[in-house]
Amino acid sequence: MDCSICSAMPYILRPPRNTICVACYEGARTIITLTTNKLDSEKASDNKPSNNLISSSNSTKGFANALKWVKEMKEMEEELNEKISYLGGFFAAFRDQIHTDIQLQPGNNEPSIPAHRALLAARSDIFRNILDSDACKAPPNHKITLPELNHEELQSLLEFLYSGHLPKEKVEKHVYSLSIAADKYEIPFLQKFCEHQMLGSLNSSNALDILEISDTCSNQSLKDTALNFIVRNMEDIVFSARFDAFALKNPHLTVQITRTSFMDIKNRRTGA
Ligand SMILES: [Zn+2]
């Protein structure tokens, strides 16, 4: 069908050139609904009298409104990017070791990493308690030991604490140890970051690891997702070599897999 929106050459269409295809129609409806919902929720959460942009939204309809919203989003994105690069100063202080006042010691006697007490205390209540309870005038070469992390993992943890982000290859490599560290040192943002990574990469070869980590970190929703994935891919997972080691180490989780699988088969049989 000739569509005056997505056709390559709409100007050759017959007048009045106002027919649009189903895809464009549905897309336009969705964008407009999204915009309206967005503006309504902003209005509802706004205690102050509505500003000009929002109060005028009733008079502008359809795409004019959507376009306004897109422009606002664009401006907001630019502002946020500036803010992120401003906050990036913390990371530079870590990278260049400017005025560091504490040493973090990984396990296995690997070399320690200098950091800043104030940042650690701001990012984690556990670190704050450790620093509060320590002799508060401890010398700058004073150490906190994190025996469960190796040097590379500790470096990644600190990078995240300073910048709120990690390069993809580091997340992929250290997601399990970082997830456990996030749980131990009570860093909810890192927990969420790791959970997102694990959900995005869940497959037959890592589902058992993710189940184990989610159980260690008491992350029930991640655990349910991993468990259901395992049950739906039983054949690939249960006959893998990894499963033998997993079952020996985690008998309670193996029992849960068996029960969930049994219920799944039962439900399917009763035609649920
Ligand atoms: Zn179209």
Automatic annotation (TrEMBL):
Entry function: May act as a substrate-specific adapter of an E3 ubiquitin-protein ligase complex (CUL3-RBX1-BTB) which mediates the ubiquitination and subsequent proteasomal degradation of target proteins.
UniProt-recorded name of the protein: BTB domain-containing protein
Domain of life of the native organism: Eukaryota
Gene3D superfamilies the UniProt entry points to: 1.25.40.420, Potassium Channel Kv1.1, Chain A
Record-annotated BTB domain positions: 100-170
SMART domains: BTB
UniProt xrefs under InterPro entries: At1g01640-like (IPR044784), BTB/POZ_dom (IPR000210), SKP1/BTB/POZ_sf (IPR011333)
Pathway where this protein functions: Protein modification; protein ubiquitination
Species per Swiss-Prot/TrEMBL record: Buddleja alternifolia
